[in-house]
């Protein structure tokens, strides 16, 4: 399948998700609580924000304003459409690598590829997190040694200890380190594929079949997803 064929299928998958990451409601609420900013006039920033749901919840919960930056115009439009007048959130259709204004609560979930990998992402995000602020970094890692196929699909990722070390090397102190549960992963993968099943074409079904095999027969339990709350040292 060409990139042209895949784009609407990825869009259908994303449209069926609340968060485009293995994130359940309980953890989402916990992370929002942990990210409570201290002091007045604080601002949030979500780079690669997708639907913007986490940013909206964060800003609503703490009564702060925020910016979401999303490269894909259709996804950014969807984020705006879900935003009410009560939300103090602005969505920018832009490349996150061009964003220069730091914030107090910075979010980057499943978006390290924006800077071509974990270490450069952490370096860029450090520059954008104000002193005393927090970064929520949601990132993949290997829970066990991957097969060649899994490594080819997801690249050279660290283990969880290595990921925390990369954060320290980038100038952060890890305040919270956790990983998505298998149940969060199973729900995420199922909801992702269900979005594609709704398309209903033979091509969509073949794509959903491939993804199901890759997950259940390949990276399930091998690829982890970490939730790091980081403070600039
Ligand atoms: C895996 S999704 C995660 C979305 C969101 N953070 C979430 O957890 O629901 C990654 C998002 O980053 C966006 N993205 C990719 N490259 C980008 C860039 N250079 N600037 C801004 N957004 C980008 C994609 O369009 C996609 O919506």
Automatic annotation (TrEMBL):
<protein>
    <submittedName>
        <fullName>SAM-dependent methyltransferase</fullName>
    </submittedName>
</protein>
<feature type="domain" description="Methyltransferase">
    <location>
        <begin position="45"/>
        <end position="133"/>
    </location>
</feature>
<dbReference type="InterPro" id="IPR029063">
    <property type="entry name" value="SAM-dependent_MTases_sf"/>
</dbReference>
<dbReference type="GO" id="GO:0008168">
    <property type="term" value="F:methyltransferase activity"/>
</dbReference>
<dbReference type="InterPro" id="IPR041698">
    <property type="entry name" value="Methyltransf_25"/>
</dbReference>
<keyword id="KW-0808">Transferase</keyword>
<dbReference type="GO" id="GO:0032259">
    <property type="term" value="P:methylation"/>
</dbReference>
<keyword id="KW-0489">Methyltransferase</keyword>
<dbReference type="Pfam" id="PF13649">
    <property type="entry name" value="Methyltransf_25"/>
</dbReference>
